[in-house]
DNA sequence: CTGTTAGCGCATTCAT
DNA sequence: ATGAATGCGCTAACAG
């Protein structure tokens, strides 16, 4: 265009206060520039920072992120996602909160979707979001401190992340058992992420026949610590415990919780980047910054009766 | 319409798989059916359940809730809100995360907005969302247990809720001072909602010249408890402490935290109901269910040296 | 009560 | 390099 024309245009824009109309654009192009984050009706613990990071990435890519709260089982959420995509309201869906095992049924029209903490094709990305390797590190570290019998209080097994941690727990125990005399699992108790589940796991146990607990998260760990105290056991004097999440309160509790810090923002960013890459038919760039980090604090120490 | 026509129509809908097109609807009517929740760039503690409840209410009212993360000072967020409303992208804006004191500048076109935890006209709704009366109840209860000198570790004073609690703290102390010999404030320390701020408030104090702490929230309270322990003081033996929020970890900590439970979902619901009422030009229904509730647990007890 | 019609503001194609 | 013309799918207003 001629510079003169471009200037004339700019003037007109200024004079009339012109702004492109999203609705007309959408109608004409057939692309809504909307992506939808679907949250289960029962959300409680899902971190806002993850959601916010996803929204931020969406915004930077020119998309608007809508939040839809859908109650009921995961099949209903899948249904809703299919509707959103088929109706053209939304170009892509991000499933948050939990990751149903069965995956997502077909029939998604032209849209794309990503299940948070679970990447479907070729399982790429699992290494980022559902990474459970810190569990292995925790067990190794505790073994060095003399611990031999480990209890795992797991999260609900329909969460990919909870499943990954449980599997890593069992695999790591099995691996070390070959090398280290007497190292074994004292069992896996499946809880529901709640402090109560950690409390119950310890309180209802006949005998405390372990010296270390790998808890599903810091909240569960807190429940377990309390139950141990009520049985007259000290942390870490008698039992060591490792949580997950690095909650602020865990840093200041007594004892402060050893835990796995998780970069929530990085998780949200990665998930949305993946969705947007899918929408554009590009390859998602794999961030190589680890999103988890094991932190040793006061709740872990030498196993009792260790020379 | 004739039942015959209605049937003929239904058949056609089924046959063609007709679904109304949102974009066309928006273009034609000029109403986007979108409301936007604006989150500051630095969100950390804002509860997802509040956001989810707001989204749920929006959905039920036929609106789509979008999330926009806007970094920078509150003026920038206000600017962005103005753009969203002026461009017609969004019909209403809900400011979340913090509530800048200065309020929101004019120039909002035809849109409506609601600042979370702060209702502007006639100050209705403040009673619901920024209600600080539990602080008064806590002080009264502690006074009955013999406490006379109270410290308040407050939240940042650009949060309406933090300001309301501070003011209620001072007012309640003044009120009781008239009746009860020796009852007084040991001071207000303004923090930033962090555990560190609670820790510092106690750790940096020359002398522990109080027997009760009203903390901005449970996280702050946790920091304060830790600092007290490090000074060799027991909770509640030497100092009683009350938090705010009823975090799950606080229920299982030792000592478990006395606190003010807040119905996060109710807060999100109320805020969005208000926004939607504004959009429709109706009066918002005032829910009369209280959103806060004082809970006494182990972190509070009789003042030391009380007969 | 039903059938017809005219734009909403844009992107795209075809003429200049 | 610019201008003019055609729908996208709907709603509202009107005609039958």
Question: Your description of this structure?
Answer:
Chains A, B: InterPro entries: HTH_LacI (IPR000843), LacI/GalR-like_sensor (IPR046335), Lambda_DNA-bd_dom_sf (IPR010982), Peripla_BP_I (IPR028082). Chains A, B: Pfam families: Peripla_BP_3 (PF13377). Chains A, B: GO terms for molecular function: DNA-binding transcription factor activity; transcription cis-regulatory region binding. Two copies of one chain form a homodimer. Chain A is an alpha/beta fold and 307 residues long. Chain A folds into two domains: 31-125, 3-Layer(aba) Sandwich (Rossmann fold); 130-263, Response regulator (Rossmann fold, 3-Layer(aba) Sandwich), CATH 3.40.50. Helices cover 42% and strands 16% of the residues of chain A. Chain A contains eleven helices and ten strands. Chain A has helices at residues 3-16, 22-29, 48-60, 74-87, 126-129, 133-144, 160-179, 195-203, 218-230, 248-252, 264-280; strands spanning 34-40, 64-70, 92-95, 112-115, 149-154, 184-190, 212-215, 240-242, 259-262, 292-295. A four-stranded parallel beta sheet of chain A has the order 2-1-3-4, sandwiched between helices. In chain A, strands 6-5-7-8 form a four-stranded parallel beta sheet, with helices on both faces. In chain A, helix 9 (218-230) links the parallel strand 7 and strand 8. In chain A, helix 3 (48-60) runs parallel beside helix 11 (264-280), helix 6 packs parallel to helix 7 and helix 8 (195-203) runs parallel beside helix 9 (218-230). Chain A is elongated and about 85 Å long. Residues 119-127 of chain A have low confidence and may be disordered. At the A-B interface, helix 2, strand 1, helix 3, strand 2 and helix 8 of A face helix 2, strand 1, helix 3, strand 2 and helix 8 of B. Strand 2 of chain A pairs antiparallel with strand 2 of chain B, so a sheet runs across the interface. Chain A binds a DNA duplex (16 and 16 nucleotides) through residues 1-2, 5, 20-21, 23-30.
């Amino acid at each position: 265009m001629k510079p003169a024309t471009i200037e004339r245009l700019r003037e007109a824009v200024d004079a009339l206060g012109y702004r492109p109309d999203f609705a007309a654009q959408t109608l004409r192009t057939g692309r809504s520039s909307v992506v939808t984050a679907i949250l289960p009706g029962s959300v409680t613990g899902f971190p806002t920072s993850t959601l916010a990071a996803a929204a931020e990435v969406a915004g930077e890519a020119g998309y608007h992120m809508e939040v839809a709260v859908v109650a009921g089982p995961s099949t209903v959420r899948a249904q809703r996602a299919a509707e959103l995509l088929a109706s053209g309201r939304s170009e892509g869906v991000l499933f948050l909160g939990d990751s149903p095992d069965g995956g997502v049924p077909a029939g998604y029209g032209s849209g794309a979707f990503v299940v948070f903490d679970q990447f479907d094709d070729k399982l790429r990305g699992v290494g980022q979001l559902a990474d459970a390797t810190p569990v292995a590190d925790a067990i190794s570290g505790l073994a060095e401190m003399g611990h031999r019998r480990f209890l795992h209080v797991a999260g609900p097994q329909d969460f990919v992340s909870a499943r990954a941690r449980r599997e890593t727990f069992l695999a790591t125990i099995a691996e070390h058992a070959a090398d280290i005399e007497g190292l074994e699992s004292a069992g896996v108790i499946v809880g529901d992420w709640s402090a109560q589940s950690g409390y119950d796991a310890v309180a209802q146990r006949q005998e405390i026949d372990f010296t270390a607990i790998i808890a599903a998260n810091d909240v569960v760990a807190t429940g377990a610590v309390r139950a141990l105290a009520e049985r007259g056991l000290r942390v870490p004097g008698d039992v060591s415990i490792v949580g997950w999440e690095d909650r602020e309160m865990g840093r200041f509790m007594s004892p402060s919780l050893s835990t796995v810090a998780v970069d929530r923002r990085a998780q949200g960013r990665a998930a949305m980047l993946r969705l947007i890459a899918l929408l554009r038919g590009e390859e998602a760039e794999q961030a190589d910054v680890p999103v988890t980090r094991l932190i040793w604090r006061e709740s872990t120490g030498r196993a009792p009766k260790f020379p």
